[in-house]
Design goal:
This protein is 54% helix and 13% strand. By secondary structure, it is of the alpha/beta class. The protein has a 5-stranded parallel sheet, with helices on both faces. The longest helix is centred in the C-terminal third of the chain and has 19 residues. The radius of gyration is 15 Å and the shape is globular. The chain binds shikimate-3-phosphate. Shikimate-3-phosphate binds next to loops.
Length: 175
């Protein structure tokens, strides 16, 4: 699909990179609806993310694939995704076809600071949190890069600054 035809904006990036907060603000000022793949998974499966991971990570990922496919024919949405959605090749292709994909790129230190006190992410409920963040980010960074149309280094930016950059990049891509 040509970038000019993309009416959805999709946010990808590691846990704690700000996808949910940015998507809500972006939706508000662009008067689009915002959806969150994790919230859609919880609603469709009737289980929490932790309950799905307790069954198995693969089981959670199968729900993630279903939800990703279901977005393909949607329009005018701001879509916040779970940090691991890009691990699956089919998801990466689908996301790219579904919208203008923005990578919110955060450093290990920034992610660690933002997530160290949160307990709702099964992959980060570990004693060696910083090491797990670093290893996973190393594995995922190139996948985020190849899936995205635009990257923003978010460490030192406010939500409003990030949203301004996304708006500008999106407008430039569609004119
Ligand atoms: C995950 C990220 C989480 C959630 C799940 C797995 C990941 O979403 O999908 O815990 O593999 O990075 P957020 O990125 O919104 O925290």
């Amino acid at each position: 699909m040509n970038l000019k035809n993309k009416t959805n904006i999709i946010l990808i990036g590691f846990m704690g990179s700000g996808k949910s907060a940015v998507s809500k603000y972006l939706a508000k000022i662009s008067q689009k609806k915002c959806v969150d793949t994790d919230a859609m998974i919880v609603e469709s499966s009737g289980k929490t993310i932790k309950e799905l991971f307790d069954i198995s990570e693969d089981y959670f990922r199968s729900w993630e694939r279903n939800i990703c496919s279901s977005l393909k024919n949607k329009h005018d949405l701001i879509i916040a995704t779970g940090g691991g959605i890009i691990l699956n090749k089919q998801n990466r292709l689908l996301l790219n076809e579904t919208g203008f994909v923005v990578y919110l790129k955060a450093s290990v230190d920034c992610i660690y600071t933002r997530t160290k006190n949160s307990t709702h992410r099964p992959l980060l409920n570990v004693p060696n949190k910083k090491e797990v963040i670093s290893t996973n980010l190393d594995q995922r960074d190139s996948l985020y890069n190849t899936t995205s149309d635009f990257t923003i280094d978010v460490d030192n930016l406010t939500i409003s600054q990030i949203v301004d950059k996304i708006k500008l990049a999106y407008e430039n891509s569609t004119t």
